[in-house]
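re: the backbone from monday

yeah here it is again, tokenized this time
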């Protein structure tokens, strides 16, 4: 898909997520609210699998957790009070509220998202959590950040950059807005080998954070080419997050076209990466 069509598909998919209040990136079928028998919220359980603490998953930010992430960039970032953070694709504000607590009253959080429905939810969540003064959300593309150059300490992102049709530009923008010495902390879906063309072309796979993913060599190369140094990463298989979503209605067309066995094989090439880097 070309850039305009990709943005349209992703924006439409995440608008639906915002309206329904449940995720499509990863284990959508696991993301249900607390049941009448008092069972633990499954979205919170998924968040703990991604590296969030139980307090993070069940505390003041819980309402903003739509299950859209594939890691915990707020832990990677080593945030300090008073810092300024930009989030690429901030969604309903889950990471925003967790960062705001660490940044304190002198810090500032700027979330950038292109989906009006997500921005609306995020702003309500920030007000309800008591962070309206230090947290703001701006409508915009992560390829064209509405943020001044050399103005922020940290750029984070959680399972969003893989959706971009122009990842090199995203990392150049992240580099631009960071102050000298600033940090990048990203959780994202990255491939051990390129997806078959018929899989990557499926609209459903783009919305589910798979179709737009790059290989490790490509992805880390984009970061270094943007000017970042000290690029480090860890990874773990993403299949435990992705496989349950095959039962979601959004995926039925893909399953019917490709077959579950083939999709299972492809899922073995998909990993959740945690990446950090610095601007000199």
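seq for it, each position gets an aa:
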């Amino acid at each position: 898909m070309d850039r305009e069509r990709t943005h349209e598909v992703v924006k439409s998919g995440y608008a639906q997520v915002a309206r329904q209040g449940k995720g499509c990136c990863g284990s959508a079928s696991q993301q249900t609210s607390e049941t009448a028998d008092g069972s633990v919220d499954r979205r919170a359980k998924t968040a703990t699998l991604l590296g969030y603490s139980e307090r993070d998953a069940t505390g003041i930010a819980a309402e903003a957790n739509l299950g859209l992430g594939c890691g915990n960039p707020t832990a990677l970032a080593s945030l300090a009070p008073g810092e300024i953070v930009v989030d690429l694709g901030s969604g309903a504000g889950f990471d925003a509220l967790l960062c705001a607590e660490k940044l304190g009253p002198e810090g500032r959080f700027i979330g950038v998202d292109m989906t009006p429905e997500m921005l609306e939810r995020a702003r309500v969540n920030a007000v309800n959590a008591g962070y309206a003064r230090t947290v703001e959300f701006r409508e915009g593309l992560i390829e064209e950040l509405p943020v001044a150059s050399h103005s922020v300490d940290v750029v984070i992102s959680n399972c969003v950059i893989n959706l971009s049709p122009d990842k090199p530009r995203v990392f150049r923008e992240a580099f631009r807005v960071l102050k000298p010495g600033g940090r990048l902390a990203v959780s994202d879906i990255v491939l051990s080998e390129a997806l078959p063309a018929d899989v990557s072309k499926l609209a459903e796979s783009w919305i589910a954070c798979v179709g737009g993913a790059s290989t490790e060599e490509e992805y880390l190369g984009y970061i270094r080419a943007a000017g970042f140094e000290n690029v480090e990463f860890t990874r773990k298989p993403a299949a435990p997050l992705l496989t349950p979503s095959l039962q979601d209605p959004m995926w039925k067309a893909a399953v019917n076209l490709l077959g579950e066995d083939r999709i299972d094989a492809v899922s073995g090439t998909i990993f959740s990466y945690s990446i950090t880097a610095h601007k000199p």
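The longest strand covers residues 178-191. The CA atoms of residues 41 and 271 lie 25 Å apart.
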